[in-house]
Amino acid sequence: MNNVTVKVGTLFECESIQEHLDYTEKHFIYDPIWRQTAIGCTILCLLRDMYKFKFGFLLSRRDKKFFTTFYSKPFTRPVWNCLYAMAFLTSIIFYMLKRWEFSVVGGWHCSFVYESLVIIGGYCQHIPPIDTRLPSRRIAYFIFFVFTYIVYTFYTSNLLSNLVNDKDNEINLETLVATEYMRVIVDYMMRNIVERSHMYAQNYGAIFDRLMAMRVVTVVKGLEEVKTGRVALLSDYTTIYPYMKRVYDNDDICKLVSVDLFSGVKKYFHASKQFQYKEQFKIGTLRIKESGILQRIVSTEFEEPKCTKSHLIQISMQQISIPITILACSYVISLLILVAERIHYKRYGVWPYVEAEIGELSKQIKLQIRKDREHNRLETFEKFIKNTGGIKKAVKVLSDKTNWIANVKDRHGETTTKRVDILSIATNFYKDLYSSKNFMDNTELNNHEEVPLILEEEVHKATKTQKTDKAPGPDQIDNELLL
């Protein structure tokens, strides 16, 4: 049977006349114009619904934390783990290099925490001041900072790319299958599939099996489950839009994503070779295409609930609650540390960190003194070996201490070498010496011969043995005058 073109025309606006259609009224039977208008409007409404009809999945985007899904997008999880491990390993290497430089040329402090801050500053491109003296540390820092600059460049470029091209809103059928969304189907569509199961099972076996495996829900229940962000509802959109306007608010509508199963499908007609209006159909189609009518019909938009939310990125308090909490805790900890420092200063009169710095400075001074002594000792030995060929005089010059009292005997005749005991014996001896009132001991002889305690010859001998060129005593008499 050949296809023919049926012309349909109306005399009134279909939108206004559609509300008054009643096929039971008698004027439908007797008035041909009204009958033509009613039938024409019905056909036009069917064609309009057919062009506007779209079919697919409806789902809601899940609420995700802003800082974990947005700022972590430029790199995958393995890349982030590699950067964390690299930061820890580099901190250890920098600390070891600092300790090496500390032992060679000295320094003020050596801290693993400070090296970790240098690593974090390198990743963020805000590097704290660094004092390096050895070329090994300079080369290590230079290579690491070049590496962090490259990483920072990749991060910022990928972050801007995600800002421009947000892939979360672009979900197709392949992406939906790969997600964890549970797929359900409305009840009236499942009834239609069951009624035509003999057709689907023959031509679309795998698809039919998947459709039959879906859970069946009502429209209202399906929309409620879509709001949870874990369910994708399979339905035609024109049926569920009126329910969406009643159930969803503006925020819920802005989260919706439509996966149209008819997107990208070409629209075409089949005609037999004996079609008598083939040429007229081609010419008419070209004219419709040139005039833009075909494009307007194909791209007809169905009425869907519109999202009135701004397209600008809006951050809620829930998204910034974590960094604000961390910042508040940091300030509280800083305040507690300040109070503890003030208490320590009032109690001991010195800041808690000054003692550690003084101890560190004392270690550095002792280390430098020991190094200077060793250097001076080597130079002295080298000098005397070149001049005299021996080290005896060098040892005498380098000897900076003398054992004045190596040992002493106490009043019981026992010898001691301990410095504390020697000081005690000497102290007691001089106490007894200066507290005694007997300056001279009288000796009684049995022969009754008067012999003075000090002979005149002894005085002359003692005077002659005095050395000259000596300073006078309290009486201002030199030894030269006595001689």
From TrEMBL:
Cellular component aspect of the GO annotation: plasma membrane
Gene name as annotated: LOC111362285
Main location: membrane
Residue ranges of the TM segments: 78-97, 139-155, 320-340
Membrane topology (UniProt): Multi-pass membrane protein
SUPFAM superfamilies: Periplasmic binding protein-like II
Keyword Transmembrane helix (UniProt): yes
Keywords: Cell membrane, Glycoprotein, Membrane, Receptor, Transmembrane, Transmembrane helix
Basic and acidic residues: bias regions: 462-472
Compartment list: Cell membrane
InterPro entries: Insect_Ionotropic_Sensory_Rcpt
Region of interest (Disordered), residue spans: 462-483
Name of the protein: Uncharacterized protein LOC111362285
